Amino acid sequence: MRYAVVLLPVLLILMAATPAAASSQQTLVVYTYPSFVSWGLANATIPTFEKEYGVKVKVVTMTSGELVNRLILEKSHPYADVVIGIDNGYAAEAVKAGVLESYRPPDIGVVPKWLIDELDPTYHLIPFDYGAIAIDYNNTKIKNPPKTFEALLNPKWKKSLILEDPRTSTTGRAFLLWTIGAFGDPGWLYYWEKLKPQIYAIVKSWDAGWAMWTKGEAPFLVSYVTDPAYDAYYGKRNTSTIGVILLNDTAYVQIEGVGIVKGCRHPKLAREFVNFVLSNAFQSKIATHNWMFPASDNVTLPSVYRLVPRWSRVVNPGNISANYKRWLNEWVELMVQGMSPSQIIKRYSKYYNTSSTTSAASASSALASTSTSASSKKSGSICGPASIAALALLPAVVRKVRKR
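-> structure tokens emitted (404 positions)
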């Protein structure tokens, strides 16, 4: 009893003191995509920032496609201080919505100007990494993969391609923009019409597609150019069984940014976090924890990145902010509702002129010569049980959840 009498006041004092101590510690809220956590970049970097500034960082994850919408919904009462992962496909939308604060970090010089110009020259989003979309295949099973957009239409590759839905995945969105950059507007519609027979499934996310591809359900997957490096790194090998295709030796480069949420509760701390993201302590972890290229020129890439092919030309789809909503509507009408390219062009005729439709028709004729069998197929919505199930939005699989 004597011990109880002595300890009770002490416990009461400790209990009373603990909440006050905890409440004095600032909490920085960061919105990001799931792979920032699941691939280890958060654990490899954030504890360093927390220790240096004596703060707590709370990471809230959601799909990349949800990041901008969430910021817009919370615009009048923002919950987040920082957002990580808005890419060049969504950047203009975020800036236009007025949900980000412009900030030019003191170490911005480590980032190549072309990354800044492509993502956001107004500095509402600062590039922190980048990568290119590619098509994966198993190089031990396929010795002569298609190397061009047109070659992918060969009848031998019927139902061979797993790709992500651009409505739910930034990987799928990037592939759509890749084709628009390659074939122009509205030429891409004719290419996708020819591509229909080649599609095995359209899935909700990259991880769902990866699960199908690694099971061998189809030979090709829309993925990332760094996959061979990832495979060699974790397989502890000098080579990789993953081959990647940069169609027509071109690439659509996805640039991801970090930004400060306008009206956030901790603006000074948010700026320090953006500065930290550009530091070597953060940038040096990206290559093997996010499997993208670090934005900083000061970082030396790990040796496995020698397996990553480089592209000769980056395609540019044009003004994404002005056109993407229409492009996505057209994609849905073509791929889900079964409308033909000519019907869609007529429906959106105010966006097209005679020269553009003539150019598109020429592209269609050129594609027809490389895909006679595909072009003879009846136009319609994507068919096949795998594709239909995929469009019903497959759940995520248990593995490392990657982009996005």
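Confidence is low (pLDDT under 50) at residues 1-22, 364-403.
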